[in-house]
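Record 1 of the preview.
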Amino acid sequence: MLSAAACHFSAAIGAHFSGKFYEEQRFVMTIRAHFKRFIKSNLGAVAVDWVVLSAAVVGLGGSVMVSVSDGALSLAGTTSSSIDDVIASKSAPSKQPAPVKLSKFDAMLAEYKPLYDDHQQDKEGKWASSLYDQLAKMDKKELMNRYEESYKAAMTWGPDKYTDILRVTEFRMAELGLKVPKGNIPAEELHKKYASEFL
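->
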């Protein structure tokens, strides 16, 4: 039911359009007065409050529904993507890296413990690789001459450095089918002899 103030407000508007003549100014003032009275009365305030509150609830509900819906769709998409990734990783055959096949030279170098301090510091064995590359360019005669020089140095004034050099030189000699000359001590034996002194 409409309140008395609402009835007065409606009656004022109806009277204006039913043929009664009021001055325009007076009409506007009357409308304002009735409207103010309606708003100030408890029923008017409650009615306005309920209208505002209802609109707010409807608006809030709509925005919550949109937000929840968007969040649910986003979550569903993320979950689906994650599940697809897990399924793909489980179904794909695992690839094990192929074992690294060491060359004979690399295998020899991996087992060899250098006597010479500079060679010990070179953890990658560049000293040996560089020396091997030089020796690989030599013919058999040059290689044997180089061996003899290194052997003399290993037996006299540079046992640590030249025993290391002899080990690489003898490896290259073996590749070419050359043997350590009779009477000479092989590099492996020299290494054992000097190991306690230099390692």
